[in-house]
Design a protein that fits this description.
The protein is an alpha+beta fold. It is built from 19 helices and eight strands.
Length: 492
């Protein structure tokens, strides 16, 4: 039977995957991911999607400048090979640059993901691809292909492995293999080498705790940092001849996930069409599980003023119901609090922004409303995830009137997509955070418009303080045609 080609999460047939040994599934998954990424990038629409993902994650990382926890923003210098988007300058250590970028993206929390994979393929793939491409003095085309391959491989691993065990956070798990795939593309690994790198990365993948994230512990940022750095390092090791290891997917399934891959999961992971077009983009910087509660609250804000809110109950599915903290201790804890997201939705505030003098008064008002929000697990909504993120918000005002709003998708879901202008507006808002350099705006413009032959280090130079305009000056000469069977992508 041919691989399943439906949307992630759709019912899948049980085919030859039901009897395929685990060791035979991973090489095909990687090969399918590579082929899907190349097919995507052979189209103008696919190239635009990859550029939008790169722009969003760049804006996330740069917006974390000045907000990273102590020690995660290493001192850099302008002439280093690998840009530190969330710190000053650059470094000659690509693993350190990748770790800092991944941590920065989780500081801002306004990234992308694939709902059915229950994670963020781009978080790890982008950070590894950026550092590896600059380390190799590669061009924009290399970055975009590495990002697309890492994203496709990571998303398919999420579909293959399925739900996480209770208490395990997704960062640093299969995302480590997404980073390995992305860095492996830059390192020149063929498909067999990429499969070895992905398999090796899965043997060292993390299974970090989820509750520390909801408490706002900065260790949350170490999961993507260490996972991404490990994935990049593994790719370099395979490039340099490090021997392959035995199949590791089943091990990660037993330790971090609810069990080994199922036939349905295998069939979904081997879907031949690209999955990147199914990515969601967050409109604000909070955990995706909180976004539908925020969406429903925004609709209620049209009828109820914040000062009139007496009590709120949010009914949602099991995974989201864990985000129930009414008194979040800090910014990270707020980003993983449905009461906080709902309160901000009712007040028209961005729930993901950092504290500041301007925000102090409004945050105090949001805190008073969040204290009146109760999150309730409704088992009847459990089957609605990951096909959506169902949430129902019931509000009682001070006059005793009841108001109700429901949301299954948030703005930015593939079912409710943001327009290119709206996506760009979110990126621009991220760059208005205190700290990002003026050159960040030029970098985003270059990621959207520069030819694929442009040197990536030339494009990132303004963020390091080297050049006034990343779009000025020539890029490197395009490489001579090779033996690749990919469609010609010289134009991008």
């Amino acid at each position: 039977m041919s691989p399943w080609t439906g949307r992630p999460g759709d019912p899948a047939p049980v085919g030859r995957a039901a009897v395929a040994p685990d060791g035979e599934v991973l090489p095909e998954l990687v090969a399918t991911g590579v082929a899907a990424a190349d097919a995507l990038l052979a189209t103008a629409v696919g190239q635009q999607q990859a550029r939008r993902v790169a722009a969003r994650l760049t804006a996330n990382a740069v917006a974390a400048r000045g907000h990273l926890p102590a020690g995660l923003a290493p001192p850099g210098r302008p002439d280093g090979r690998c840009t530190l988007l969330a710190a000053q300058g650059a470094t000659d250590s690509p693993d350190r640059a990748a770790a800092a970028t991944a941590a920065a993206i989780t500081t801002t929390q306004c990234d992308e993901g694939l709902r059915e994979a229950r994670g963020h393929p781009g978080l790890h793939a982008y950070a590894a691809a950026l550092a590896a491409t600059e380390d190799a003095d590669g061009d924009l085309r290399t970055l975009l292909r590495a990002l697309a391959v890492g994203w496709e491989v990571g998303a398919r691993l999420g579909l293959l492995l399925g739900p996480l065990r209770a208490g395990v956070h997704p960062h640093g798990g299969w995302g480590t293999a997404a980073a390995a795939a992305a860095a492996g593309v830059v390192a020149g690994l063929d498909t067999a080498g990429l499969a070895d790198a992905v398999n090796l990365a899965l043997t060292v993948a993390l299974a970090g705790p989820d509750d520390s994230t909801r408490r706002g512990t900065p260790a949350h940022h170490l999961l993507p940092a260490f996972g991404t750095a490990a994935g990049l390092t593994v790719a370099y090791l395979v490039r340099d001849g490090f021997p392959a290891t035995g199949p590791a997917t089943a091990h990660l399934g037993r330790t971090a996930h609810q069990g080994p891959p199922t036939p349905v999961g295998v069939d979904a992971a081997l879907a031949t069409r690209p999955l990147l077009p199914d990515a969601y983009f967050k409109p604000v910087g909070v955990c995706a599980h909180a976004l539908t509660g925020w969406t429903a609250a925004r609709s209620l804000a049209r009828d109820v003023r914040g000062v009139d809110v007496a009590a709120v109950t949010v009914h949602t599915y099991a995974g989201a119901a864990l985000l129930a903290e009414r008194f979040p201790a800090n910014r990270l804890a707020r980003q993983f609090s449905i009461p906080w997201a709902v309160a901000c939705g009712l007040l028209g505030l961005d729930p993901g922004v950092a504290d500041g003098r301007v925000e102090a008064a409004r945050h105090a008002e949001a805190a008073r409303i969040a204290a009146r929000v109760t999150v309730h697990h409704d088992p009847g909504l459990d089957d609605g995830y990951p096909h959506g993120r169902p949430a129902e918000v019931e509000l009682r005002d001070r006059a005793g009137r009841r108001h109700t709003a429901r949301a299954r998708f948030h703005p930015g879901d593939r079912e409710a997509p943001l327009s290119p202008d709206e996506l760009a507006a979110v990126d621009a808002a991220l760059l208005r955070t205190a700290g990002p350099p003026a050159g960040a705006t030029e970098l985003l413009r270059a990621l959207a418009q520069a030819p694929g032959s442009a040197s990536l280090r030339h494009l990132t130079a303004p963020v390091r303080g080297e050049a006034p305009s990343p779009t000025g000056g020539p890029g490197p000469a395009p490489a001579a045609p090779g033996t690749s069977r990919r469609k010609d992508t010289a134009s991008w």
